[in-house]
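Below is a filled-in request sheet from our internal design queue. Each sheet records the structural input a requester submitted and the sequence that came back. We keep these sheets so that new team members can see what a complete request looks like end to end.

REQUESTER: design group, bay 2
PRIORITY: normal
MODE: inverse folding
CHAIN LENGTH: 60
BACKBONE (tokenized):
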């Protein structure tokens, strides 16, 4: 890879948010995801929102 690659890097906050979301959903399903969003939002790390589109490859 070159010095000026177009590959996106993932921030530590996003990694932490996605990890908390995965753990929450694994432990308690959708409710766990909601709790993870509350916690990561309160810590200022961000939230992961699930869209309403059932065909969305990012959410499903």
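RETURNED SEQUENCE:
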């Amino acid at each position: 890879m070159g010095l000026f690659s177009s590959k996106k890097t993932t921030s530590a906050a996003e990694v932490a948010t996605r990890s908390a979301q995965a753990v929450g959903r694994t432990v308690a399903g959708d409710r766990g995801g909601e709790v993870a969003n509350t916690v990561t939002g309160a810590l200022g790390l961000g939230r992961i929102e699930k869209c309403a589109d059932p065909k969305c490859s990012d959410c499903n």
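SHEET NOTES:
- Residues 12-42 form the longest helix (31 residues).
- The two ends are 31 Å apart (CA to CA).
FILED BY: M.R.
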